[in-house]
Amino acid sequence: MFIRLSTENDRPQIKRLLDCCFGPVGDQGAYDNLTGRYLLAFDGDTLAAMTGLQYNEEYKGFELDWTATYPTYQNFGIMRELISRICTITDEWIYCSAWRIDGKEKANLQDILEETGFKELVRDRITLDSRYNCYKVYCPVKKNPTSNFCKGHEDLWARPERSWKKE
After folding, report:
1. Helical (H) or strand (E) element with 50
2. Is the pTM of this model over 0.70?
3. Which DSSP symbol is given to 8?
C-alpha cells in the first residue's frame, strides 16, 4: 500500500471511489482544489481508500471529509492509517460527521475515531430517512437492492485542540 497526497490527475479515480461509496456527489465540493486536499491509499495503481481534511465554516475548524474505502479493501486497517496520518497535519480541532446505519449502536468510523482521540459531541445530529445517498453501488443499509431508500444518522465527533507544541 502506498499513501500520498492527491493531485489533479487523481480526479477520475477519486470520482469512481466516491461514486461507489456515496453515489453521484455532483457539485458538493468533493472535486474542488484536489492538489494536496486528500490523503490517498493505493494498491498498485488502484485507489483503495481516501480521506480529506478541509476547513469547515460551520464548525469553525477542520473536518475529515469524503472518507471512503472500496468494500474489497475494508477491514485491513487502511482507513485507520489514513486518519492517523491526517490527524498529524494540525493540532487544531478536527470534526467528523460519522454516519451510523439505523439500528446500529456505532458509527462506521467510531472505533477509529476513538483510537485517534475523537469524542462524540452530538448523537443523531441529523437523521436521514429519505433517498439521500442511496444510489451507491455498495450500500449496507439497503434491505432491498432495487430500492433507493435509506435511513441513517449523522453523529458529530471532534478531536479537541492539542495544547502541546511540537519541538
Report:
1. strand 46-56
2. yes
3. G
